[in-house]
């Protein structure tokens, strides 16, 4: 009876380890790969991102995100040049630090300070788990299409720190300059058209008045609440 209790406890522990996806320690006297001097099996290589099967040097790559599309130029040998907002090139010249994967903090500070870098990453790091569209914009710029080698050379010449502007110098401007000879951003054009529609809609004036009145009611009558309300309403009215 005394032996049955430890055996039951050992069996229960083994079941719990299996449920937790843990491997229990081998019992004494059993052979393992390490005991036999055999190295553990290597992990399987990660599959390439969808759409990255047959890339050619100079291809224009697109990765759709939730709110925007990210762009890059394929340089060959699993390398992609792309423009990313990044504060780090303005703070250090250490190439090893800059080449690390850009964190959200670095990206946001780059947008705010209008600094960026055109960097070279692997296809997997560039895609970041997303699907890749290849030369999807060629149908819109058939007459401006440059040679693939010329596009890749242009991208390689621009690698390094650069200025950033959400409207005038983003990743789409970079790739369209490299592949089509002129910086264009269809995303920016669409955003500006949306802003124009909002401004031209007279309901925006009414909405600004209501928001201003709510701010006055909640925060009190003061220059910090009344002046922005009057100014924004006036500008929307004049622009509409």
List keywords for this structure.
240 residues, single chain, alpha+beta, 6-stranded antiparallel sheet
Write up what this structure looks like.
By secondary structure, the chain is of the alpha+beta class. The chain has helices at residues 4-19, 95-99, 104-113, 123-127, 148-157, 171-180, 186-200, 203-219, 223-239; strands spanning 60-64, 69-76, 79-85, 115-122, 133-134, 160-163. Strands 5-1-2-3-4-6 form a six-stranded antiparallel β-sheet. Strand 1 (60-64) and strand 2 (69-76) form a beta hairpin. Helix 5 packs across helix 6 (171-180) and helix 8 runs antiparallel to helix 9. The protein is elongated. Mean pLDDT is 78; it is low at 9-13 and 15-35.
Short description:
With 240 residues, this protein is of the alpha+beta class. It has nine helices and six strands, in the order H-E-E-E-H-H-E-H-E-H-E-H-H-H-H.
Low-confidence stretches: 9-13, 15-35
Structural class label: alpha+beta
Order of helices and strands: HEEEHHEHEHEHHHH
Mean pLDDT: 78
Based on CA atoms alone, the radius of gyration comes out at: 28 Å
Distance between the termini: 89 Å
Largest sheet features: 6 strands, antiparallel
Count all strands and give the number. 6
Task: Please state the overall shape, judged from the principal axes of the Cα atoms.
Answer: elongated
Helical segment tally? 9
User: What proportion strand?
Assistant: 5-15%
Residue share in helix: 40-55%
């Amino acid at each position: 009876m005394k032996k049955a209790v430890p055996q039951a406890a050992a069996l229960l522990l083994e079941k719990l380890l299996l449920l937790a996806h843990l491997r229990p320690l081998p019992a004494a006297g059993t052979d393992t790969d390490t005991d036999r001097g055999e190295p553990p099996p290597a992990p399987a290589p990660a599959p390439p991102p969808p759409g990255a099967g047959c890339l050619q040097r100079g291809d224009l790559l697109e990765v759709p995100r939730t709110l925007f599309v990210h762009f890059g130029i394929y340089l060959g040998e699993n390398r992609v040049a792309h423009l990313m907002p990044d504060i780090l090139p303005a703070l250090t010249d250490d190439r090893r630090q800059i080449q690390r994967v850009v964190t959200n903090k670095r990206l946001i500070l780059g947008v705010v300070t209008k600094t960026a870098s055109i960097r070279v990453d692997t296809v997997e790091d560039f895609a970041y788990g997303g699907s890749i569209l290849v030369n999807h914009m060629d149908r819109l710029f058939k007459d401006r299409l440059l040679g693939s080698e010329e596009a890749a050379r242009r991208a390689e010449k621009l690698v390094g720190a650069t200025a950033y502007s959400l409207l005038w110098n983003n990743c789409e401007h970079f790739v369209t300059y490299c592949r089509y000879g002129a910086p264009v951003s269809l995303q920016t054009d669409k955003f500006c058209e949306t802003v124009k529609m909002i401004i031209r809609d007279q309901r925006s004036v009414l909405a600004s008045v209501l928001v201003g009145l709510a701010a006055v009611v909640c925060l009190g009558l003061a220059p910090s609440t009344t002046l922005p309300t009057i100014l924004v309403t006036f500008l929307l009215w004049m622009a509409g």
